[in-house]
Amino acid sequence: MAIKNSSAQLPQELDQKEIHSFLLKISTAARAITLKYFRKTVNVENKEQTSFDPVTVADREAENAIRDLIAQYFPDHNIFGEEWEPKKTNSAFSWIIDPIDGTRAFISGLPVWGTLAALCYEGRPIAGLMSQPHIGEDFIGFAGNTTLHRGDEKSTLSTSKVKALNEATMFTTSPRIFLNENSLAHYDKLEANMRLARYGLDCYGYAMVAAGHGELVVEEGLKDVDIAAMVPIVEGAGGIVTTWSGKPVTDGGQVIAAANPNIHEAALEI
Questions:
Q1: Structure confidence by residue, pLDDT tens digits, 66-116
Q2: Which of 11, 42, 114, 193 lies 20 to 30 Å (CA to CA) from residue 162?
Q3: How far apart are CA 191 and CA 169, in angstroms?
Q4: Residue 4 predicted with pLDDT over 70
Q5: CA 213 – CA 215 distance, rounded (Å)
Q6: How far is residue 102 from each of residues 35, 81, 105, measured CA to CA in Å?
Q7: Which of 149, 107, 105 has the alpha carbon at shortest distance from 130?
């Protein structure tokens, strides 16, 4: 499903508190499954013939649990997921879900994967969840408002005010995700201008930008399920999410998430 930038306000027929509560229900349902398998011996299948794109029973069972919840509470909504065929209706509302974003981290025992769920209206993300159950964090974003839940604690997030690249921190899943020498060369040039670059964070890197602990995420080869939920989370905290050329994020592809306009503009120039 094509998604449009940027995140938008909830339509009047939806209540933000209701959607916020529902996103926490998704987190709870997925957590019961993913933690059952995390840091356990699980069978890993490869979805690709020429590369390694792993999937586990945890991915599939968690997506089924999320789909069941959506069908219960919002039976008319479309559903687009990472592991199963889409459910298409005539509704203007769609859910884009990735039960385990960062399956490579998941099967390696690293707690930087997350459960992603985005509610979209007419293709535009209006609410997003990134849940990291092992750490015990739920990031929930709406237009103008992103919160972090840790147990009974709830805090409002705001992106960093650092304006210069040489004072900034950048995240990416891996330099190996860049698809050709030209892309990698541009990434390397950008990294050379940063104060610090950290690898291997998948969706958690975007959450750290929303939380003000880094200023930039740069990646390539993303799918809609990888980025839809992170758009309202980053933008709700004050950040910006676009393609490398500054255009709206549609199906993923080349994505940049920046803490503020200064960092965004400086990164796009490179």
A1: 999 999 999 999 999 988 899 999 999 999 999 999 999 999 999 999 999
A2: 114
A3: 9
A4: no
A5: 7
A6: 14, 15, 5
A7: 149
191-236 pLDDT per residue, tens: 999 999 999 999 999 999 999 999 999 999 999 999 999 999 999 9
DSSP track, the chain: ----SS--PPPTTS-HHHHHHHHHHHHHHHHHHHHHHTTS----EES-SSS--EE-HHHHHHHHHHHHHHHHH-TTSEEEESSS--B--S-SEEEEEEEEETHHHHHTT-TT-EEEEEEEETTEEEEEEEEETTTTEEEEEETTEEEEEETTEEEE--------GGG-EEEES-GGG--SHHHHHHHHHHHHTSSEEEE--THHHHHHHHTTS-SEEEEEEE-HHHHTTHHHHHHHTT-EEEETTSPPPSS-EEEEEESSHHHHHHHHH-
Which pair of structure tokens corresponds to residue 173? 């899943």
Q: How far is CA 260 from CA 148, 191, 245, 256, in A?
A: 19, 18, 16, 12
- What whole-number distance in Å separates Cα of residue 268 and Cα of residue 116? 26
Distance between CA atoms of residues 105 and 112, nearest Å? 7
